[in-house]
């Protein structure tokens, strides 16, 4: 067994707020004002979405480098959704500045389903991916 990530959170005096440290990096976590926080930083589900889209971007860039493909600039977004019945899912969207062939679009979608964070989340949450 190997540790692949580590983070620590230290509370701030304000309710719900704290400093997350991972390695030499610091981030602020908080809840939105609508949930009683001060909205000083990312909420917990924002971190989930951030991890997913970061991993997606890195994996696609590694694939492009390996295959000598130039995707150009692109953007990855994610929304974490929940309904009243308790179902949770993530909508992930990719947009590319340059046009991709239909074949390359399908390859990108296939790769997105195989990123390490996607695989981890798929064990417990459905992830729908689209290119916009």
Automatic annotation (TrEMBL):
InterPro entries: KH_dom-like_a/b (IPR015946), OsmC/Ohr_fam (IPR003718), OsmC/Ohrsf (IPR036102). Coiled coil: none annotated. It comes from the Bacteria. Pfam families: OsmC. Transmembrane segments: none annotated. PANTHER family: OSMC-LIKE PROTEIN, PROTEIN INVOLVED IN RIMO-MEDIATED BETA-METHYLTHIOLATION OF RIBOSOMAL PROTEIN S12 YCAO. This is OsmC family protein. It comes from Acinetobacter defluvii.
